UniProtKB/TrEMBL annotation:
Principal subcellular localization: cytoplasm
PANTHER family: 23S RRNA METHYLTRANSFERASE (PTHR30544), RADICAL SAM CORE DOMAIN-CONTAINING PROTEIN (PTHR30544:SF5)
GO CC term (a single one): cytoplasm
Top-level enzyme category: transferase
Catalytic activity, reaction form: adenosine(2503) in 23S rRNA + 2 reduced [2Fe-2S]-[ferredoxin] + 2 S-adenosyl-L-methionine = 2-methyladenosine(2503) in 23S rRNA + 5'-deoxyadenosine + L-methionine + 2 oxidized [2Fe-2S]-[ferredoxin] + S-adenosyl-L-homocysteine; adenosine(37) in tRNA + 2 reduced [2Fe-2S]-[ferredoxin] + 2 S-adenosyl-L-methionine = 2-methyladenosine(37) in tRNA + 5'-deoxyadenosine + L-methionine + 2 oxidized [2Fe-2S]-[ferredoxin] + S-adenosyl-L-homocysteine
Active site: 108, 361
Organism: Nakamurella multipartita (strain ATCC 700099 / DSM 44233 / CIP 104796 / JCM 9543 / NBRC 105858 / Y-104)
Protein name as it appears in the record: Probable dual-specificity RNA methyltransferase RlmN
Family annotation (SMART domains): Elp3 (SM00729)
Membership in a protein family: Belongs to the radical SAM superfamily. RlmN family.
Domain called Radical SAM core: residue spans: 114-356
Assigned EC number: 2.1.1.192
Miscellaneous comment text of the record: Reaction proceeds by a ping-pong mechanism involving intermediate methylation of a conserved cysteine residue.
Length: 372
């Protein structure tokens, strides 16, 4: 296992995405506009169209001079993602989209409508280097990190879909979860800048509340501590999947470097600093991590390390085709929840979405690769 750990930090080199307006600081945006032969105030106009108007279509930007408008917009807002395939299910309340980047890289995002919110599950990497054996993305390995622009573009496109009624009634994208392809904290700088662009008020950003953004991790302790120092109000989600180191070394190989106690200690620092409750993600796998004693151990460990500042999000495994892994039976799931709650720890079961459209992370991209 140790030989695979460098993949946590090193992305293979592939074609670099074109520099996008979102990749630039405010000063760099103005400089880029000047370099394109336009006055600086055009940077603010572009930001308004992109973040508030949710568009990169030059035809919609009628406040820009008609002469050279298309070339100017393409230079500053290059097309980063093109839709390959989009599938809907759950009576139209879930839509999963497969995107192709400039270099042919395939990534996924999932847009979901709930009674009280519209949530996007966004990817931060193409593939993943964490090598968790039950995860479709992890089986394909890491292709490359996504740029800040590529991450934010997923959100911009999803917000436009929601606004235009892709999930039925028009609505506003309200929540973003970094739980798609990849380990967000292994692409730390770009994810952080994407979070800032997502949460900045329009016209400087998409204006989604930081408290409605969740960043997940399998437990990269140094990166959790860096995120703590940012003092953001985003929620931290830790993909724990088992409370004991022996099994977690197998299910989440990075556990060989940072053990459960270290991960939970870093999560406690985050909770204490931000005042935000930490979410513990736990994919329940039949006969692997669903034993009653593991539920008891999970509850006691979380009570000890995090107290009231924790919530367990139990995830019925969405099995991938040909996988040996399967979801736990409903009675086993219910008993697991009961035992965790008996320790005084909040525990709920995630609403399963999109099973008929390969909604487990990485499945649609894997199908796309096989079909090429």
């Amino acid at each position: 296992m140790a030989a695979s750990l460098p993949l946590v930090f090193t992305a293979p080199r592939r074609g670099r995405p074109p520099t996008h307006f979102v990749d630039l600081s405010p000063d760099e945006r103005r400089a880029a506009v000047r370099a394109a032969g336009a006055p600086e105030f055009r940077a603010k106009q572009l930001a308004h169209h992109y973040f508030a108007g949710l568009t990169r279509d030059a035809a919609e930007m009628t406040d820009l001079p008609a002469a050279g408008r298309a070339e100017f917009v393409d230079a500053l807002l290059p097309e980063l993602l093109t839709e390959v395939r989009s599938l809907a299910c759950d009576d139209g309340s879930t839509r999963k989209t497969l995107w192709r980047a400039h270099d042919g890289t395939l990534i996924e995002s999932v847009l979901m409508r709930y009674p009280d919110r519209i949530t996007l599950c966004v990817s931060s990497q193409a593939g993943c280097g964490m090598a968790c054996p039950f995860c479709a993305t992890g089986q394909g390995g890491l292709q490359r990190n996504l740029s800040t622009g590529e991450i934010v573009e997923q959100v911009r496109l999803a917000a436009r879909m929601a606004r235009d009624g892709a999930l039925g009634e028009p609505g506003r994208l309200s929540n973003v979860v970094f739980m798609g392809m990849g380990e967000p904290l292994a692409n730390y700088n770009r994810v952080l800048e994407a979070v800032r662009a997502i949460t900045a008020p329009a016209p400087s950003g998409l204006g989604i509340s930081a408290r409605s953004v969740t960043v997940s991790t399998v437990g990269l302790v140094p990166a959790i501590r860096r995120l703590t120092e940012e003092k953001l109000q985003v929620r931290l989600a830790v993909s724990l999947h088992t409370p004991d180191d022996e099994l977690r070394d197998t299910l989440v190989p990075v556990n060989e470097r940072w053990k459960v106690a270290e991960v939970l200690a870093a999560a406690r620092e985050y909770a204490d600093t931000t005042g935000r409750r930490v979410s513990i993600e736990y994919a329940l796998i039949r006969d692997i991590n669903d034993q009653p004693w593991r539920a008891d151990l999970l509850g006691s460990l979380l009570r000890e390390h995090l107290g009231p500042l924790v919530h367990v999000n139990l995830i019925p495994l969405n099995p991938t085709p040909g996988s040996q892994w399967d979801a736990s039976p409903r009675p086993v799931q219910d008993e697991f929840v009961r035992r965790v709650r008996a320790q005084g720890v909040a525990c709920t079961v995630r609403d399963t979405r999109g099973q008929e459209i390969a909604a487990a992370c990485g499945q649609l991209a894997a199908e796309g690769v096989r079909s090429n």
